[in-house]
Specification:
This protein has a four-stranded mixed sheet, with no helix packed on it. The protein has a two-stranded antiparallel sheet with strand order 2-3. The protein is built from one helix and six strands; from the N terminus they run E-E-E-H-E-E-E. It is of the alpha/beta class. It is 12% helix and 22% strand. Strand 2 and strand 3 (13-14) form a beta hairpin.
Length: 68
């Protein structure tokens, strides 16, 4: 599970900076399920994902569960 500072409707995660989580996910074979946990008010229109960003498989908030 990964904490979310923000997220968008495509399940891309805005974290705390540095890209450590994305690099770790990219290195793991097979890639584990990635679940982001945050608050509904953190949803953004887009986080403008970069090529190295990896979307979450699920995002869980107090109001919903979103699946990619």
């Amino acid at each position: 599970m990964a904490p979310l500072v923000g997220f968008d409707r495509d399940c891309y995660r805005l974290g705390y900076g540095g890209g450590y989580f994305d690099r770790t996910l990219a290195a793991l074979k097979p890639r584990p399920w990635a679940i982001g946990v945050g608050f509904e008010l953190s949803q953004l229109e887009t986080i403008y994902p970069q090529d190295f960003d990896i979307p979450m498989d699920l995002i869980v908030t107090e109001a919903s569960v979103r699946r990619r």
